[in-house]
Amino acid sequence: MQAPKYFLAIILSIIVLTGCKNDDDSPKIKFTSEQLKMVYGDTEKSWRVTAYYTNYSNNELSDFNDCYRDDVYIFKADAQEVEVTLGDLGCYWPEPDEQVATVKYFYDEATGKFIIEHSRGEASGDHFASQYYLLELEEMSETRLLFGSGDNGKYSRAILLEAGE
């Protein structure tokens, strides 16, 4: 007859322990819209690419690092777009016939996530190569932005930007 009492005590203990709830169920806001003014200023702000990583957590620069390092991104406050000025160095061919990059950004106010959608392509003669990816703003200051993919501090692909003149 003791077994049902112990069984009941164990069940009640499990219910009590698993039924406890964190009082703070509100989602954590990553960045506020006010903080994001560091990214695009009042109307726009210029950023220079300083590094492009294949694996940021292992400090592995991408094979495309050199061609990205001479690019400038101008974040526009009112258009959710980024004007990209590409440098002279091609990513796929030493002297491409044409280079194009398109960067857009999205901000989710509910979560505070700021994401860039990045595509870059290059043509040389009859050949065309491109890449496309999404990166989330992970770190931000007045002079430095880090966009990456992956978990907290263990980013794979990442772009590091520094404030321009």
The amount of beta strand, in percent, is: over 45%
Distance between the termini: 81 Å
Number of H- or I-type helical stretches: 3
Radius of gyration: 23 Å
Low-confidence stretches: none
Query: Strands across the major sheet, in which order?
Result: 1-3-4-5-6-7-8-9
Mean pLDDT: 86
Query: Biggest β-sheet: count, sense, barrel?
Result: 8 strands, antiparallel, barrel
- Oligomer class: single chain
Write the element-wise H/E pattern from the N-terminal end onward.
Answer: HHEEHEEEEEEE
Structure class: alpha+beta
Name the helicity range.
10-25%
Describe the global form.
globular
Explained architecture:
With 165 residues, the chain is of the alpha+beta class. Helices cover 16% and strands 48% of the residues. The protein has 3 helices and 9 strands, in the order ααββαβββββββ. The protein has helices spanning 2-19, 37-40, 65-68; strands at residues 44-55, 60-61, 72-76, 81-85, 98-108, 113-124, 127-140, 144-151, 154-163. An 8-stranded antiparallel beta barrel has the order 1-3-4-5-6-7-8-9. Strand 7 and strand 8 (144-151) form a beta hairpin. The longest helix is centred in the N-terminal third of the chain and has 18 residues, at 2-19. The mean pLDDT is 86.
